[in-house]
What does this fold into?
Amino acid sequence: MADLSGKEFKKLIQKHIDKVNFVKVILKDDSSIFGFIVKYSDEFVMIEETYDFSLAGIKIVPYERVKSIRHNKFDKVSKMIFAEEGLIKFNLQIIDKTSLKDFGSLFKSIKKQNFHCAVESRKKKTGYFSIGKILEITEKSVTIQNYDATGKICKKPDEIAFKNIELINFNDNYSKTFRKYLK
It folds into this structure.
């Protein structure tokens, strides 16, 4: 957030976590994620994403990609509905076991929990999407055993440099369900 210092911005994030506020996280490319911020570090923000009044998985965004966080009257109504319907049920074990220290520890913690993940990345001006099992984590990259929309595992895994990663998604219905039907 342009008008807040780094320290003030982190204080704002912590306030949203403490109050379990429903928010709209706006990224620097003007895309956004609706949900509940559940954890953060100097490197990442972890969001329990929502869709149609359900928890839709965890999104992890590099901290420097966050442009702003909205919590207005619309978001307050959404939080009230989530609360009244008893829909705010975070899996604290997953949140606690997911490391936000750096990319290496993050992917190791996701792999250890046996999740497939989706990684959105950008190289030059081209965007890439990889989804699948985490095969290898090095000092500078992660290798994903990617699969396509038919469930076919790609012959060549995707090696993604940490510096190109824009978003990581896991514990979502799509990857948890689709992995059972891979060929």
Notes: The first strand starts at residue 22 and ends at 27.
